[in-house]
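Please discuss these two lines.
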Amino acid sequence: MKFLIPVDGSEGANRAVDYVINSATWLRAPAQIYLLNVQWKLAMGNVKLFISQATMDDYYREQGLAQLAAARAKLDAAQLAYEYHISVGAPAAAIVQYADAHKIEQIVLCKQGQTGLQSMLLGSVASQVVQLANCPVWVLP
């Protein structure tokens, strides 16, 4: 089974990792685990005149690795193999695109606590992934 776990460094993402670790113990074949961190694109318009692409790439990589650290530590402790990737863009679209490209069989994520205007205008990443994904999505509370 191919699992994709979108990781943003939150406690919810860690719960999703724990779920996959526990699920991997009862699978007949070894689980293939993919961690994905999506960084929002920072540079728009004239910002690129003042900050180089290399500097932005370093920032995305640094932030992504920091947000992946706890999930990677949990999987290392459980002695489960995994791959990780850092993407840049809108989270829901990036998650679905990655899942499609890697033929993911299940996306496991935790609903986030967006409230108020942001939730009404954008919707949560979890609900967008559920609507867009071409594979089952397990949303943890």
Q: What stands out?
A: The beta strands are 2-6, 32-39, 82-88, 106-110, 137-140. The longest helix spans residues 53-77.
